[in-house]
Amino acid sequence: MAREQLEVLSALDAAKTQWYHFTAIVIAGMGFFTDAYDLFCISLVTKLLGRVYYYRAGAPDPGSLPPNVAAAVNGVAFCGTLSGQLFFGWLGDRMGRKRVYGMTLMCMVLCSLASGLSFGSTPASVMATLCFFRFWLGFGIGGDYPLSATIMSEYANKKTRGAFIAAVFAMQGFGILTGGVVTLVVSAAFRAAFDAPAYQDGAVASTPPQADYVWRVILMFGAIPALLTYYWRMKMPETARYTALVAKNAKQAAADMSKVLQVDIADSKDPAPSDGDRNSFGLFSGEFLRRHGLHLLGTATCWFLLDIAFYSQNLFQKDIFTAIHWIPKAKTMSALEEVHRIARAQTLIALCGTVPGYWFTVFLIDRIGRFWIQLCGFFFMAVFMLGLAFPYHHWTTPGNHVGFVVLYGLTFFFANFGPNSTTFIVPAEIFPARFRSTCHGISAAAGKLGAIVGSFGFLYLAQNQDARLVDHGYKAGIGVRNSLFILAACNFLGMGFTFLAPESNGISLEELSGENDDETSAAPAHARTVPV
Q1: Which of 68, 298, 450, 470 could connect to 304 by a Cys-Cys bridge, CB 3.0–4.6 Å?
Q2: 378 by DSSP, 3-state: which?
Q3: How many Cβ atoms from other residues are within 10 Å of residue 121's Cβ?
Q4: Cα distance from N-terminal residue to C-terminal residue, the chain
Q5: Within 13 Å, how many C-alpha atoms sit on residue 498's CB side?
Q6: Ordered DSSP codes for 102-169
Q7: What is the DSSP annotation of 58-70?
């Protein structure tokens, strides 16, 4: 690649932080706000779905989703997300980031609405319809991962790039928090309008018919923020790095960036491609494997291990809170009261642990660097999980749940001020422009594979070891305590794989990927896998 074509990219790297950068953060971030809301709000209403559709006459406890249905409802969106990450990641490198960006958002809007309109004459048909729409909802969400990260990394200057990408991802925290708040408001409104006794005082009356509207309203709300940003997403120009390096139109890249950024960019000639350009290797070539194979292994494996722990904890907070007696037993509450209490507990965790962790990353990542934040995040997640697991019987004793919640919240803090943020950021920085979206999609898909393992596996593993105390329809598992030991081990493994990806702090994207190099010798210095 001739150097004169990169003048527009040098100008972007040196550009001061401007209003358009913040506009791009909001436009891309609202997609992630919706992603997190849609993925995690299902955990707030699964208990309600069990009461509404799987009532068992004469049973001592309220109805609950059968194991296979619970696994499908919780995990099907992740299957769609994995597929979407691979497909839209690849498509973003073939068609351009902008052209694909609108497709993902409309898919999310339509499927959010459709999820709340799930229909059927039997419980099984309602759940099947819900799973169908949540799969395609996940498909759209999956596309947002590689595209949002890539677009933000390619717009940003090299000095504050990490903070900008982290700020986009930090909107996930507000999405999780908003899911809890919306559920609190909706459940409180329905409780005030339709008073109901506890299950033990009136099994049928404890779940009023109107409760069927509660989960539908909560799921459909996710379409609103995505719809509000659709117009602005369509107005964004294609990123200069895609236009210059992939479409090979430096003049158009300069013109596009001059419109939105206050930088003086001179027109550049579009040089003819060189037959000997060593940057023309393919994704499945030996050259890519030599230069970026370990990097891709590192980003994908770290994301896989992180999501096993992160999503298993997020999706099954309600079960953990019940185990430590922070939420009363289901039979002592009405259906709407149970939803309200679960939402209150998850909102508190999000407010005190999840959201602050994201913003610590935003403010510190360009000072500390990606490597140390990820390494320390994995380490402290493991430490606090072991702190929950070793004295687990102490934490489950009435009166000790406050200490459990504090340690539990700290695991989320260090997940977000740690690998949950950095695994999203690093793949958007270290790969060549023509593979950037694809490689980010591969890394993210590995993460969602971990989420599937965590969500399906934890559902069964966390069941009580005593067969008499397991949830209806389940077999005895290894218990929450032993599950926490497994999750801690995943974090320790994540520490090891962190060493495979290079530190990208303060380095231009072209230096990281080697696209600035004309020599045909060894890989660039920044491809080393030990931080400098």
Answers
A1: 450
A2: helix
A3: 7
A4: 27
A5: 26
A6: HHHHHHHHHHHHHHHT---SSHHHHHHHHHHHHHHHHHHHHHHHHHHHHHHHHHS-TTTHHHHHHHHH
A7: T-SS-----HHHH
Q: How does pLDDT run across 494-522, given as a tens digit for each residue? A: 999 999 999 999 898 888 887 766 544 44
- Distance in angstroms (rounded) separating the CA atoms of residues 511 and 516: 6
pLDDT (0 to 100) of residue 250 = 82
Phi, psi dihedral angles at 77 (to 5 degrees): -65, -35
Instruction: Please give the pLDDT value at position 164.
Output: 94
Token pair for residue 122? 């039997």
- Residue found under tokens 């490689």: 439
- For residues 131 and 174, the answer to whether their CB atoms sit within 8 Å is no
Report yes or no on whether pTM surpasses 0.90.
no
CA–CA separation, 266 and 424 (whole Å): 33
- Rounded Cα distance between 326 and 319, Å, is 10
Write the CA distances from 191 to 81, 135, 207, integer angstroms: 34, 31, 11
**Alpha-carbon distances, residue 211 vs 48, 116, 170, 341, 395 (angstroms):** 8, 13, 32, 15, 33
Q: What is the dihedral of CA 255, 256, 258, 262, to 10 degrees?
A: -170
> Is residue 425 within 8 Å of 166, Cβ to Cβ?
yes
Give the pLDDT confidence of 402-445 residue by residue, as tens digits: 788 888 889 989 999 999 999 999 999 999 999 999 999 999 99
Q: pLDDT at position 323, please?
A: 64
Report DSSP state, residue 244.
Answer: I
Range of lowest pLDDT (55-64, 318-327, 363-372): 318-327
Q: Which residue has the tokens 């722990």?
A: 309
Helical residues (DSSP H) of 194-285, grouped into ranges: 211-220, 223-228, 230-235, 240-241, 250-260
**Which tokens sit at 318?**
């309600």
State residue 319's pLDDT score.
58
Element (H, E) at 490: helix 479-497
Tens of pLDDT along 158-213? 889 999 999 999 998 899 999 999 999 999 999 999 999 999 999 899 999 999 99
SS (H, E, C) 159-216: CCHHHHHHHHHHHHHHHHHHHHHHHHHHHHHHHHHCCCCCHHHCCCCCCCCCHHHHHH
Are 498 and 377 in contact by the 8 Å Cβ rule? The answer is no
How many whole angstroms separate alpha carbon 129 and alpha carbon 329? 30
Neighbours of 382 (CB within 10 A): 22
